[in-house]
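Consider the tokenized backbone below.
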């Protein structure tokens, strides 16, 4: 983490570099019993043992800059990049009664993602009013490989995310706000399982 203040006006730059990793090891045993309409057991039990490891590495870096101008306008801008690799497996063994054999439910999925973003936000206070307007551009590059079926995909796309806000400070206890922003929701990385 880094922070530098240029002068007393509030001009500053901050930078962060982060690394996070998750190493999840999960074991499960599933027993399925089948019964007919008369509640009589039908056939043999299906017994599965599962080994479900998941490894996730997340690297990110960002730089933010803040610059207040003399006319009351403030600029905030920044850049961010992130790289993610997930390696999720599901290895099921099925009991045949005398031995354990690999089950068809087993799978392995590797996902890599790079997101690059830049943003700028302008804000200004005018008496009891506060105005903000900004734009973020985001470029995503993702690849996925399902190893068992040897199927892969590659996605590259760029999106714009505008935002705007208007606030009115009526008094110390009352403030009225209006805001608009476009956002994106992504799944958690541990949700990216082999299926």
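A designed sequence for it:
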């Amino acid at each position: 983490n880094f922070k530098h203040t240029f002068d007393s006006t509030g001009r500053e730059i901050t930078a962060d570099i982060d690394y996070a990793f998750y190493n999840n090891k999960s074991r499960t045993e599933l027993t399925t019993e089948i019964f007919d309409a008369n509640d009589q057991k039908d056939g043999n039990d299906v017994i599965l043992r599962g080994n479900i490891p998941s490894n996730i590495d997340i690297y990110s870096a960002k730089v933010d800059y803040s610059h207040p101008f003399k006319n009351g306008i403030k600029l905030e801008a920044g850049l961010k990049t992130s790289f993610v690799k997930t390696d999720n497996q599901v290895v099921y063994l099925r009991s045949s009664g005398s031995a354990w054999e690999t089950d068809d439910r087993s799978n392995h999925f590797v996902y890599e993602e790079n997101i690059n973003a830049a943003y700028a936000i302008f804000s200004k206070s005018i008496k009891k009013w506060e105005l903000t307007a900004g734009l973020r551009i985001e470029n995503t590059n993702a690849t996925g490989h399902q190893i068992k079926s040897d199927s892969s995909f590659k996605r590259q796309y760029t999106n714009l995310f505008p935002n705007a806000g208007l606030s009115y400070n009526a008094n110390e206890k009352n403030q009225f706000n209006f805001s608009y922003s476009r956002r994106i929701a992504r799944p958690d990385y541990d949700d990216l399982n082999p299926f």
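The longest strand covers residues 73-95.
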